Amino acid sequence: MQIIHHIKDLRQVIKEARNARGELRVGFVPTMGYLHQGHASLLEAARKQCDLVILSIFVNPLQFGPNEDLSRYPRDEERDLAVAKATGTDIVFFPTVQEMYPNPTKTIVSVSGVTERLCGTSRPGHFDGVATVVTKLFNIVQPDFAFFGMKDAQQIAVIQQMVDDLNNPVEIVPCKIVREEDGLALSSRNVYLQPEEREQALVLSSALKMAEKFVQEHEGSLQAAELQEAVKRHIAQSSIAEIDYADILAYPSLEQVTDLRSVPAFIIALAVKFGKTRLIDNTIIRW
Ligand code: PAF
After folding, report:
1. Which residue from 266, 140, 145 is spatially nearest to 215, judged by alpha carbons?
2. Helices 224-235 and 202-217 sit at what angle, rounded to 10 degrees?
3. pLDDT, tens digit, for every residue of 34-73?
4. CB within 8 Å of 258: residues ≥ 6 apart
């Protein structure tokens, strides 16, 4: 496994690998590090599908708001490298902020529509930061496939839209949410949770399970408002949960929908704070 810090070195290594083998499928897993089993599952999927697997670890300042957790975002380089190695990753790209943004960027990639609700509203500028850094990373790596976790379902919708609009030849591969045995979706931010918050955070996955059952029971006709009401009531069982949003939208367009039977798929998307920690989770229902 090679660890590379500089863009020019990474380009050179990928060029040599492509030259050495006519048809090389390059798989890319962009992350912000503090890797968990969810990231490992992306690397494993990439390993199965690709000849060269590249992981990037970069905590991108551009996607954090002024009062967000950039300065305390968890980091563990040693453990990240161990996870990368165990999943058979070929290259870890570990750039510094100076390497990625030697000068303040004057170009921002901004996707409209799919960014107008959910985290797009709660975290202004977040998706501009994501779309800009992912564009830069795609330009550096030029992958054939890029793997993203469905926990960030809106991020996938944004990146897919961007790739389609800008004719980037990469194929986006969405991968299933990985959960703890008790249902909590894996997230690097789970490390912030105090034991009581960790316990109460289970209300997210139980709300989604309840919602899936509710959908089954109301198959004939189902209004988004009814389902949203049931989900919010369920989350309110937790005494400390503070709902940022609990929304039901068409997926992947993320447009508002009233009659859920009128769209082929919809998302139940949650963002809820437990103490200082904001967690997201979701499920997608396809008829
Ligand atoms: O999902 C993440 O970890 C980040 O948003 C990403 C895609 C690596 C961009 O910084």
Report:
1. 266
2. 150
3. 999 999 999 999 999 999 999 999 999 999 999 999 999 9
4. 223, 224, 225
Closest Cα to atom 3 of ligand 1: 31
Kindly indicate the confidence band of residue 7, based on its pLDDT and cuts at 50, 70 and 90.
Answer: very high
Q: Which ligand 1 atom is nearest residue 134's CA?
A: 9
Distance CA 103, CA 275 (A): 36
- Of 2.60.40.10, 3.40.50.620, 3.40.50.800, 1.20.120.80, which CATH number belongs to 2-175? 3.40.50.620
Q: How far apart are CA 70 and CA 92, in angstroms?
A: 21
What single-letter amino acid sits at 237? Q
Are the CB atoms for 272 and 232 separated by under 8 Å?
A: no
Task: Give bridge partners of residue 282 from the DSSP assignment.
Answer: 269
Residue 158 CA to chain centroid, in angstroms? 10
Q: Catalogue the E-assigned strands of 161-209.
A: 171-175
- Does the C-beta of 60 come closer than 6 Å to ligand 1? yes
pLDDT one-digit tens code per residue, 211-241: 999 999 998 789 999 999 999 999 999 999 9
Q: In what order do the strands lie in the sheet with 241-250?
A: 241-250, 265-274, 277-286
188-282 topology per CATH? Pantoate--beta-alanine Ligase; Chain: A,domain 2 (3.30.1300)
Secondary structure in 3-state letters for 44-72: HHHHHHCCEEEEEECCCHHHCCCCCCCCC
The rounded distance, in Å, linking the Cα atoms of 61 and 129 is: 8
pTM (two decimals):
0.97
Task: Judge whether 6 counts as a catalytic residue.
Answer: no
Residue tagged active-site, from 5, 39, 126, 218? 39
Neighbours of 239 (CB within 10 A): 7
